Amino acid sequence: MELIDRISDGRTDLVLEYVAAGNPANSKNQDGVSIIRLCAYYGDVSAIKHLLANGESLTALGMNFDLSGAAFHGHWRLCEFLIENGADVNHDSPDSGETPLHAALCKSGSNCAFFGCQSIAGERRRSECSHKARH
Fold it and tell me: The domain spanning residue 56 has which CATH number?
């Protein structure tokens, strides 16, 4: 089985080996799904950081870096990383009007992602407010 197939099956720990073997960080599997999307699906922030360091872009994850998907799947570390890199917890989907905070609440057991998103959003707002007050 090829490395990219094993990554597709959830072995995102193999991303480092895949890139080290000379494969592009923005590769796609046979179904056309990018490696960074696979890593996001499985919640592997370390693999995503490695792909970014080797030329991939968070924009490959789609609108708002697919924060809604990360929140829905309960990947709070990924939510934190995406928010720190500019994803918006209040960004509403053009299809449904739902936000990533809503997506986190829709999935049983993903309250960690909800509270993580909510906490990070609150920290960012407090930080922006204090920054504006100083300038």
Answer: 1.25.40
Two tokens at 87?
């994803």
| Structural domain harbouring 29 | 1-61
Q: Say if residue 75 is in the same domain as residue 133.
A: yes
Number of H helices, E strands in the chain: 8, 0
pLDDT digit string (tens) for 48-106? 999 999 999 999 999 899 998 898 888 989 999 999 999 988 888 888 888 777 777 76
Whether 15 and 44 have beta carbons less than 8 Å apart is answered as yes
- Full-prediction pTM beyond 0.85? no
CB 80 within 8 A of CB 116: yes
Cα 67 versus chain centre, distance: 6
Contact 83, 120 (CB under 8 A): yes
**Residue 113 and residue 101 in one domain:** yes
Number of domains in the chain: 2
